[in-house]
Amino acid sequence: MCGIVGYIGKTNALHVIIPSLQRLEYRGYDSAGIAVIKDGEIRLAKKKGKISELISFVSRIDFPTFSRVGIGHTRWATHGPPSDNNAHPHLECSGKIAVVHNGIIENFSELRKKLEKNHKFTSETDTEVIAHLIEDALKEVGSFEKAFEFAVKQLEGTFAVVSIFSGEPDRILCARYKAPLVIGLWDENGNLVSSDIPSLLIFTKKIIPLSDGEIAIVKENSVEIKKDGFRVERQPIEVPWDAQQAEKSGFKHFMLKEIYEQPHVVVDTTAEFLSRWDELNLGEFQKIIITGCGTSYHAGLLGKLWIEHIAKIPVEVDYASELRYKDYIQKNSLFIAISQSGETADTLEAVRRAKEEGLKVVSLVNVLGSTLSRESDFVLHTNAGPEIGVAATKTFLSQITVLYLLAVFLSGQSRKSKMLYDIQKVPEKIEEVLALSDFIYEISEDVSKLKNALYLGRWISYPVVMEGALKLKEISYIHAEPYPAGEMKHGPIALVSPSTLSVFVAPRDRVFKKTISNLHEVSARHGKVILITTKNTDVKDVWKKIEIPDVEEFLSPFLTVPVLQLLAYHTATILGHDVDQPRNLAKSVTVE
Ligand code: M6R
Fold first, then answer.
1. Which ligand 1 atom is nearest residue 471's CA?
2. Which fold has domain 248-424?
3. pLDDT tens sequence across 373-393
4. Where exactly are the structural domains of the chain?
């Protein structure tokens, strides 16, 4: 996915932009480029391929070794194939204005058709129209800022746009509409711009996020934000992450590192929640509506189960992409939106729909300063640290930690201390599960040869198998279908055969025996069964058995999910897939 970086200040722009771009590499890209202003001219270098190729290209050509302002980009092709020409930044005809862009300009063909009469296009991208629009407007209005604003007003679609102009080298201009963009404040060294907070962390933790429709004028010593010509005041926020957290730290993949961070994540998220426990004023409501997408939606399903069982409050969980179209949303409801990134377009639209109905919105967000965190009435920070792997792992555990604690909080006094005690025992049990990694690897060698899997669980293990099946699909590309174990006999049992894997999640809990009966229905038909269960359960007729430590029945997802994450991770790596950048997927999905 595309990434944007910009810098203006005292330091060498090249030495800021390249390392920041390298920290965007995990997003996946096919070309990279940089433009700086030197002696009143834009100097440009761009290359198909990896950033290392751009670096080697820059060292071979006559590229300025020092400049104080520049922009850089990693491109993931949408309009036009990966090539040097299609790589960003793009220039207009005179070569004085450079533009980088994330997102999609939906009206680019109409704009291009008009512009082609007077402009020479050198790429197939939608982005290039922006450079030519600024060029035209600059001739009319004379000021870079006004021309930029005018050009941006003509764009339809989603975009984060960043531009420099050799005639006004004291500024970088930025605009955002439905694609993330933040400004990093690097004290006396200047200011940065990025599409992604982790790329800034080696320089600063102080950021100002931009909102939709805003334009920012970023100079060495100042940042001015405007909307519709009016100044917007916004205080910077301190990101609670450090640069080390966004590195692989010796792990082969970010995903593996993030799986191993989970014991700590549960501790940190619990501490964060308990520190805000007293401020939590959710007001009066009769029902809770939870929304989210993908993994965050699965966390919501567990949240429903806990809140209904522990706090006895009715909960509805809807996919954000579906909730938006509901005619009826019950007014006296509390609305909870769950999102790792806080930038998921579907979730944001669902929140806006809830707000139209006057509902109070509480969000569970991992990225502070994200759009969702700014549009919510109350934020419960999931505090998992930066998650770089595209497949969500540790943020799922942090989300379910918050939801479990929320259920306890909403339940009143009687069981609180016991339940808080129970969750504090969870991190050491997750450590025990992670110690099974080598054993799970061996099982994965066989799983990697299969083409289809059913993931089956009842009650609390049903959202777990949904999450486990999603993980397997996302990174190993093996088809996996989650089903409530009791529903299997109503249809999917027809798929059971020696070549179809059935992964049963059945910890020792109130539904254990019933799930095991379903398991026997599969093994009796020569199905290949992996059983994830509690130690010392007596179940025969399984192909492989993975045993988790004994745990209070409400907390089993904290142990069964890491098993499924490791199963997916090892299977995908055995198949040779890039688990951190699975095909077709983005870390934050800003399109609807
Ligand atoms: O950032 P969000 O939590 O809102 O993202 C929601 C989904 O896009 C995300 O969980 C997606 O399903 C992941 N690829 C799961 O691994």
1. 16
2. Rossmann fold (3.40.50)
3. 999 999 999 999 999 999 999
4. 3-244, 248-424, 434-577
